[in-house]
Amino acid sequence: MKKYLVISDLHIPTRNNEIHPKIVEEAKLSDGIFALGDFVDIDTVIYLQTLNRNFFAVSGNMDYIDVKNYLPPQKIVKVGKFNIGLTHGSGPHFNIHKRIANWFPDDVNIILFGHIHIPTDLTFKEKRFFNPGTAMETYGILEIENENLNFKIIKL
After folding, report:
1. How far, in Å, are 21, 28, 32, 33 from residue 113 at the CA level?
2. Domain limits of the chain?
């Protein structure tokens, strides 16, 4: 089984001072990190990269320009049989999954997104959509074993 930390919306240093110690611990113990934007500063991105060699990340709308230059707005990562699309998301929170569904090719099975600060696990157009909420309050754990997926939300 592979276990991935899923985080988004850290907002450091604008709304939050540091990464919660529980997230740091999970980052070190996980098989990888999926980070979905709104880090805000580049130091946060670089620090997270040092915690796990399998660091997959995209930029968000609140990120400083150096983060946006360093990270793409979207990315696809293959884990086993799953093609996982990463994006921050944008625009109004209402029905965000319907907008971002069209941002990825049809062979993407899972879309991880942030932006709305609301933990989400839903299926739309035969794709699973996961949002870990804001890393100021929650984070996600995505477990992948063969053809099985499990997504958990952990409260801080």
Report:
1. 22, 22, 16, 13
2. 2-155
How many angstroms separate the CA atoms of 13 and 3, rounded? 28
The verdict on pTM exceeding 0.70 is yes
153 phi, psi to nearest 5 deg:
-105, 130
What pLDDT digit, counting tens, does each position of 98-110 carry?
A: 899 999 999 999 9
- pLDDT tens, position by position, 14-37: 887 889 999 999 999 999 999 999
HSE-CB at 23 with a 13 A cutoff on CA atoms is: 25
How large is the angle between the packed helices 42-51 and 21-29, nearest 10 degrees? 40
Domain 2-155 is found in CATH 3.40.50.300: no
